[in-house]
Give the backbone structure.
Amino acid sequence: SDGSIRLHQMTSEYPLMQWNDSTKGQPVIALQWALTRPAVFFALDASSNIYIWDLLENDLLPVAKQNIPSEKVVTMTLLGEPEKANGLLGIVLAKESGQIDIQYVKKKWALP
């Protein structure tokens, strides 16, 4: 609820990494690992900002941020086929009105 993100290992109650105020204080409402690239994850905050983290490129800050200005996004999920090497990765955004929007991610964050 405070915008912090913690990376845990299943065998420990203490986080391996913690990013405080990663969303400038906005609550994180969805977070998901990329299906096609293990070091990449996506976070959605309550202000409809999507943050892309690539831990191999930068483990201190997100590598990209995208605002969805048209309407409030209430949740997101990712789609892709991890068993295929084509690098297709999409973000499915559910908006407050009930509209669903699908956006594809740049190959550099999707290729295995």
